[in-house]
Amino acid sequence: MALKLLIGNKNYSSWSMRPWVLMKTLDIPFEEQALRFDFSPGSAFYQAVRAVAPTGKVPVLVDNGLAVWDSLAIVEYLAERFAERGVWPVEQALRARARTVCAEMHSGFNALRSLCPMNIDADLAPVGHVLLEREAGLRSDLDRLAQLWTDALQSSGGPFLFGGFSAADAFFAPVVMRVTRYGLSLPAGAQAYVKRLEAVPAVQAWTAAAVAEKDFLDFEEPYRDVSGPVPVIKTAF
Q1: Is 3-85 CATH 3.30.565.10?
Q2: What gap in Å lies between CA 142 and CA 51, rounded to an integer?
């Protein structure tokens, strides 16, 4: 029985993007079950997710009746289930660092995540410029992000954070979407990594599908007016 991955809207669901990109890149076969975000009580979204996991959140990986939720837990399950695929680096020190930076992403960068929610379809550079001027926490997160990427790339030699593509790169794929869509500037080395990660075929496939959705949800659009036929950036935010 094939693995099944429950995900949300590709335009918005940053946590769903992580295991999806990882599994596609490492050629781990799975069935995708895409669910439209709807957090109202009794929604089809909640019914589908809670049929397999108690959290009511995506992503959820289902393997022959076993449900694994939370992106980091999913990654660890895949590393055990497909040990030969390179979910984590082979070398112990690099593997430990890769897990560390994933955990940091999982629990940190709160300003970047809250102020710049993933919205792949949108060009939010004007919003990003304003946010950078007024939000010290966002500037601090970007500085840390640039340092983290630079240190990892210098230690491993690249082209990805720990040499070959791994879970660490998948974890930062939604961050790259934020950097590019909000026009957030980074040092040259970090910006080069952004371009390399954007060029990964699985990232391109997710991005293309996100843009094709055209399913705009008001509660996911703090900076755009989606009430008309064409979403526009709000004049005040």
Answers
A1: no
A2: 38
